[in-house]
Amino acid sequence: MMATIHQSSTKQDILQYLHKHIQATALELATALEISPQAIRRHLKDLEAEQLIVYSSVQVGMGRPQHVYKLSSKGSDRLRGEYADSYGEFAVSLLDALAETVGHDQVSTILKKQWQRKAQEYRERLGNGSLSDRVATLVELRKAEGYMAECHPTDTSNSRDRFIITEHNCAISNVAESFPSVCVHELEMFAAVLPDCTVERTHWIINGEHRCGYLVQARKNRLNE
After folding, report:
1. Are 162 and 173 in contact (CB under 8 A)?
2. Which residue of 31, 76, 166, 213 is surrounded by the most CB atoms within 10 Å?
3. Helix-turn-helix type domain: from which residue to which, for each copy (predicted)?
4. Are 148 and 127 members of one domain?
């Protein structure tokens, strides 16, 4: 039983890595996940049989061609969750009905109110600790909600006061595609959750990028305290 659980976890790690990095060789996966190339190849073979990944052969130098693996559309759907699309379609349908009934401006107001509630919930969970602790807690909350979030300090002398939050999956992508204003309110939500910081969008899935990114930086007056 424990072997089955470990195998399932490793396969999930492979899918998540390919989602974040777009593509990878077996050796790159083995190195990143710290398991043997032989074990990686067994998992890749299983995932290929399940049609969750695909590969192409790429010639590198004078050696043998290497297999480069990517997620298939089925793999992407599996990673998002079997029911995510259905819930998203229901949410979009509901918002469309509201827009027809009360107008798009009112729908935008409703979405903004929802993000304000979310900001209040996050702030209560984050507490009043250091910026690094609050950002770490926020990332864990987002991760639990399906955003595949992670955070890294920036490469500066004040890295403890500057962070990049990256979200490799959008849990509300269906809604965001039909109602882009939800992303504006989401950015406002992050700023409300971290009122002593500026929050800027650096990447945006809706613009065709593979992730959403936010630069979180402590305000100058706080840095000088």
Report:
1. no
2. 166
3. 11-61
4. yes
| Alpha-carbon distance values, 133 to 129, 190, 224 (Å) | 6, 15, 20
171 half-sphere exposure, CB direction, 13 A CA radius: 11
Going by C-alpha positions, the residue among 35, 51, 44 that lies closest to residue 68 is: 44
Considering the domain architecture, whether residues 197 and 88 belong to the same structural domain is answered as: yes
Shared domain check, 134 and 107: yes
Two structure tokens written together for 146: 């399906």
DSSP string for residues in 163-177? EEEEESS-TTHHHHH
pLDDT in tens, 47-63: 999 999 998 888 766 77
Count CA atoms closer than 13 A to 76's CA, side-chain side: 17
| Three-state secondary-structure class, residue 56 | strand
Antiparallel, parallel or unpaired: β 149-153 and 212-218 = unpaired
Domain count of the chain?
Answer: 2
Residues 32 and 101 in one domain: no
**Cα gap 204→126, rounded to integer Å:** 25
Of 141, 127, 137, 181, the closest CA to residue 163 belongs to: 137
158-198 pLDDT per residue, tens: 556 899 999 988 878 778 888 888 888 889 999 999 999 99
